[in-house]
């Protein structure tokens, strides 16, 4: 890229080391300048450095003195959602930090506030196959909060507790606790309330998906165009199936199959007074 070109290096405190090919004050800088000089002698017509004040080069100066974490990078949120649209929506960001997580639930490489766990490669609670395969809305818990809100808004029968305001992509939680309750049903979290839901919504402010409308209670706004919003929320026009009220307390993981019982026999076998199932089972 630079071979055969005249090079000018703008830097602050190492300009003299580059121009003088090192100094006696710092062995590390001397060795670095020597390597640079030897390489430049073979590949460049000329190279020189000019001093630039730290106050005029604050960001580069700070970066030059900091240890950059190679894991601190992030896809643009719109690109991320386009990928999700094609391959399905994950539920957990397995390699992330609070600064670059694309999902409210994430696993960090190091103990971090807000992370659901540490070190995804050793996390026993993460079922890897659940994040790679299957249609986007057929995996348990795969529906994200913003998609859930869009699904509610898309159904006119919900307009008594959540509805569009008529101003662009603005919507209002008319009954915020009802919205939170339904989200709790969706995620099997009986303690869900609006305070917890609103904290989750703040995550989307940072990601540029939605924002709070200033001066109005319970009013929010999606920041993207309607076509983009609905294409991301409903890939291939596939509407998610929200959990019904009767699914609230009982799920497949909590039930016990009765196929081993004889239909013609008494419902409870004679076990000498012992209960056939543990206390934690639903039967």
From TrEMBL:
Residues 143-223 form the ETS domain. GO terms for molecular function: DNA-binding transcription factor activity, RNA polymerase II-specific; sequence-specific DNA binding. The lineage of its organism: Eukaryota, Metazoa, Chordata, Craniata, Vertebrata. InterPro entries: Ets_dom, ETS_fam, WH-like_DNA-bd_sf, WH_DNA-bd_sf. One of its GO terms (cellular component) is nucleus. It holds the Pfam family Ets. One of its GO terms (biological process) is cell differentiation. It comes from Thamnophis sirtalis. This is ETS translocation variant 4-like. Keywords: DNA-binding, Nucleus. PANTHER family: ETS (PTHR11849), ETS TRANSLOCATION VARIANT 4 (PTHR11849:SF181). Belongs to the ETS family. The keyword Nucleotidyltransferase does not apply. SUPFAM superfamilies: Winged helix' DNA-binding domain (SSF46785).
């Amino acid at each position: 890229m630079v071979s055969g070109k005249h090079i000018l290096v703008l830097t602050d405190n190492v300009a003299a080391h580059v121009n003088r090919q090192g100094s006696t004050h710092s062995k590390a800088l001397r060795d670095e300048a020597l390597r640079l000089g030897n390489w430049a002698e073979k590949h460049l017509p000329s190279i020189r450095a000019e001093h630039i004040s730290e106050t005029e080069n604050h960001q580069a100066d700070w970066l030059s003195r900091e240890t950059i974490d190679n894991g601190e990078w992030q896809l643009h949120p719109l690109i991320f959602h386009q990928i999700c649209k094609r391959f399905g929506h994950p539920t957990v960001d397995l390699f992330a930090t609070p600064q670059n997580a694309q999902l409210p639930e994430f696993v960090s490489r190091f103990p971090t506030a807000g992370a659901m766990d540490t070190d995804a490669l050793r996390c026993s609670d993460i079922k890897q196959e659940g994040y790679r395969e299957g249609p986007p809305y057929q995996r348990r818990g795969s529906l994200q909060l913003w998609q859930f809100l869009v699904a509610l808004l898309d159904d006119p029968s919900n307009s008594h507790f959540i509805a569009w305001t008529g101003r662009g992509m603005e919507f209002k939680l008319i009954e915020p606790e009802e919205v939170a309750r339904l989200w709790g049903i969706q995620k099997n979290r009986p303690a869900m309330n609006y305070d917890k839901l609103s904290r989750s919504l703040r995550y989307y402010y940072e990601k540029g998906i939605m924002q709070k409308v200033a001066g109005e209670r319970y009013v929010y706004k999606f920041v993207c165009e309607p076509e983009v919003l609905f294409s991301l929320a409903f890939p291939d026009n596939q509407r998610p199936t929200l959990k019904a009220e009767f699914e609230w307390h009982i799920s497949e993981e909590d039930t016990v199959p009765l196929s081993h019982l004889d239909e013609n026999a008494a419902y409870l076998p004679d076990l000498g007074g012992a209960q056939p199932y543990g206390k934690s089972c639903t039967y």
